[in-house]
Design a protein that fits this description.
heterodimer; A: about 180 residues; alpha+beta; Alpha-Beta Plaits; 2 domains; 9 strands; about 35% helix; elongated; B: six-stranded parallel β-sheet; 24 helices; about 15% strand
Chain lengths: ~180, ~575
């Protein structure tokens, strides 16, 4: 049996009500936990992109992605491991202004983590940091230790493949062409 | 074309007609009254069969689709009407049966408010449908309904649900039928990959002991002739899954019988003896494979399927052939060298003889005068029914005896619940089968358990005056569970004994002719009377209470570990 590892599943779909449910029930049937999920409009109008991460065995993820891909409203589904991807998450940290300003070396900390300040008022400061999970987590841990974090939120992963894959627009054009050739 | 201003209900019915629908199975209710009102004006073009429970409507639509090859249509109301269809929808999903279920829904402004008879039909049915869509505006109807038929009937067929809000039924639109025949995100049948075709042909050309496993995909793909040409060119023996039965006639030279838990000895044993296993439109269900890690390990596996997610799902394929069998089978056949496998094919004879002596002869020609056996009733009915009859079964022992001992002469002759194993399927499915093939004899085998799950459909048989021959194999037990209890649970018959009503009297209450038979010498005459009768007939065969279906590959056992007789 294969070892479980983190896979990133990328799905292009029509933007139809209930699509997310169609995708998640396939994970549910196989008892796969979704670690992160991000859904947003793709570069092409009317087409949405899902980025989902999950820990699974290779054999399992292969079957799951095939079952997602065959859904009528799914244009394309595939999966990758981290080596094949440029990926990113974004995190927001809400801190007490009073306690943060008392902290030594604020400038150095922000530079070291490549974070930025989004909002500052007399009650709170909101920092933003993007990066891999470990990086946003490291800043969270450091802030928790030093000033305490009032609120913390991290987005799901977004990812782009490194390999030369055909852009979605080309793939769509090929699909349209094929459909038109075989009415 | 000028677009006419009509109601959503009328647009739906016109689209159904444009899609070739002439029969609906349904049950009215609060949220489809406008639709049924409109149907009143279309009753000359759309025949509506009023079932007695919505589950029956779905199974009837399945039976209709399975024998006719057309898409079955179901019309029900919202809430309980819709939830009652769930079992049939799930069954159609498992068995790749094209049906379109149209459910009424509360008016769209009330959606999400727990209105009377509101239920989240889309949410409930998404896991068990090929597509589910809610129509909220009359303008969506032409598109959504045509799309539903396109999706249900193409590629690997399956069920589609259209949830139809009441205000969209009443509202008006400028209607013109627009046929949907392409969806950019959906490719029903991919073009075959020449490399796969060549690799498959090369394996088969090098094979000395090839074995083909025929699934329902051959029937769904209308590739029965292509299958025979393929088998004959390379002289390949073949076996069927339950749903693949009748793709080849029973007496066909290369047909070596049925696979699986209660399949024939030869096909199961040879699965683990062949050198190339050729799966065609089947999905390696666990009832076929038994224990996977000892299944056909010696063989190279070629898997023909239209559904890529089935290839490699249960059994890894050395050579996948992804595509429509109507194209891929002839394409591979062209690349085959004619071959002769006389010795290999002859090797099935020993298994056939063994099965005949240990199982079949006891079942159909028992010695002495024991109580009636299920198999003998099935075989006698099959012989009396003659060529071209359709077998419909319920689930359990009646089903396994039915498919084992009935004989098939033409395709689309078996209607049974394979994947889901739905008790109660039989009677309503037989109603649909008769509607779908009125010129064919329809023989239903059911058990005392399964019949009572959808017994109310006798009312539909009565109202529609349907000529269905119903045979109840009455053993006063939930026989298949009892069989497992006998074999694997030390004869602890937990909750499997049935106190039954007088089925013949029940049938007569519905105006259906009926007779009960328990003695062997009366059986032939009773069957003759059944077939001579005009219209529906229910024959109750009082069979042995402790009958067993053999051979049997126990669940999860290696496919060659076969129980042949009582231990």
């Amino acid at each position: 049996m294969d070892k479980k590892q983190l896979y990133t599943v990328i799905i292009f779909s029509e933007n139809i009500v209930g699509l997310l449910n169609q995708v998640t029930i396939i994970f549910t049937r196989r008892q796969l936990n979704i670690e992160t999920l991000s859904v947003s409009p793709s570069a092409i109008r009317g087409i949405h992109k899902f980025t989902i991460t999950t820990f699974a065995e290779r054999d399992m993820i292969d079957k799951v992605v095939k079952q997602i891909d065959k859904r009528v409203d799914i244009l394309k589904a595939y999966y990758n491991t981290d080596e094949d991807l440029v990926h990113q998450e974004i995190a927001l940290y809400k801190l007490s202004s009073e306690r943060f300003l008392r902290l030594q070396g604020v400038e150095e900390l922000i530079r070291r983590y490549n974070a930025r300040v989004l909002e500052m008022n007399e009650d709170c400061i909101v920092l933003e940091k993007s990066g891999h999970y470990e990086e946003t987590q490291a800043l969270f841990l450091e802030l928790s230790r030093s000033t305490g974090v009032l609120q913390f939120i991290r987005s799901g992963r977004i990812a782009i493949t490194k390999s030369k894959v055909e852009p979605l627009s080309d793939m769509l054009a090929a699909m349209e062409k094929k459909i038109n050739e075989n009415p | 074309m000028d677009k006419e201003l009509i109601t959503g209900s009328e647009a739906l019915l016109r689209t159904l007609i444009a899609e070739g629908v002439d029969t609906l199975f349904g049950y009215p209710g609060g949220q489809v009254i406008p639709l049924y009102d409109c149907l009143y004006d279309y009753s000359d073009r759309l025949k509506h069969i009023l079932v007695r429970h919505e589950q029956g409507a779905t199974h009837a639509a399945q039976g209709y689709a399975r024998v006719s090859g057309k898409t079955g249509v179901v019309l029900v109301t919202s809430g309980p009407g819709a939830t009652n269809t769930i079992t049939g929808i799930a069954d159609a999903m498992m068995d790749s049966t094209p049906i379109v279920v149209i459910s009424g829904q509360v008016p769209s402004p009330l959606l999400g408010s727990d209105a009377f008879q509101e239920i989240d039909v889309i949410g409930i049915t998404q896991p068990i449908t090929k597509w589910a869509y809610q129509v909220r505006k009359p303008q969506e109807i032409a598109w959504a309904v045509s799309r539903a038929f396109y999706i249900a009937s193409t590629g690997r067929p399956g069920p589609v649900v259209i949830d139809f809000a009441k205000d969209a039924q009443i509202g008006t639109l400028h209607y013109a039928y627009e046929r949907v025949s392409r969806i950019r995100s959906y490719q029903p049948a991919p073009d075959a990959d020449p490399a796969q075709l060549e690799a498959a042909a090369e394996l088969i050309n090098g094979a000395s002991r090839p074995l083909a496993l025929v699934g329902q995909g051959v029937i769904l793909g209308s590739a029965e002739r292509e299958l025979r040409a393929f088998l004959e060119k390379a002289d390949i023996p073949a076996a069927s899954t339950v749903l693949g039965l009748s793709a080849m006639p029973s007496d066909y030279r290369l047909n070596k019988g049925m696979l699986g838990m209660h399949g024939n000895l030869g096909p199961n044993r040879k699965t683990n003896a062949c050198d190339v296993l050729i799966a065609i439109g089947m999905r390696f269900d666990d009832r076929v494979t038994g224990r996977l890690d000892t299944y056909a390990r010696q063989a190279k596996v070629i898997h023909f399927d239209i559904d890529l997610s089935e290839i490699g799902k249960n059994v890894p394929a050395d050579v996948p052939v992804w595509g429509h069998v109507k194209q891929t089978l002839p394409a591979v056949t062209r690349l085959l060298r004619p071959a002769v496998h006389t010795q290999w094919i002859g090797s099935f004879e020993a298994d056939e003889r063994e099965e005949y002596e240990k199982v079949v002869v006891r079942e159909i020609h028992p010695l002495g005068d024991p109580p009636l056996r299920m198999g003998e009733v099935v075989r006698k009915v099959s012989d009396a029914a003659g060529a071209g009859a359709v077998l419909v079964t319920d689930v359990g022992q009646n089903q396994m005896m039915g498919v084992r001992y009935f004989r098939y002469t033409r395709t689309r002759s078996v209607v049974t619940s394979g994947g889901l194993g739905t008790m109660g399927f039989g009677l309503p499915a037989a109603i649909g089968a008769k509607e779908g093939a009125p010129e064919r004899r329809v023989c239903l085998f059911t058990g005392d358990g399964g019949l009572q799950m959808t017994l109310q459909e006798l009312g539909t048989v009565m109202q529609e005056n349907l000529d269905i021959k119903m045979i109840v194999l009455n053993n006063h037990y939930l026989g298949m569970v009892r069989q497992w209890q006998e074999l694997f649970f030390e004869r602890r018959y937990s909750a499997t004994t049935m106190a039954n009503p007088d089925f013949a009297a029940l049938a007569r209450a519905y105006g259906i002719r009926s007779r009960s038979v328990s003695r062997r010498e009366e059986l032939d005459e009773a069957i003759a009377e059944m077939f001579a009768a005009d219209g529906a007939y229910l024959l109750v065969a009082e069979v042995e209470t402790h009958g067993m279906v053999y051979p049997m590959v126990p669940a999860g056992a290696t496919v060659t570990k076969i129980i042949m007789e009582k231990p």
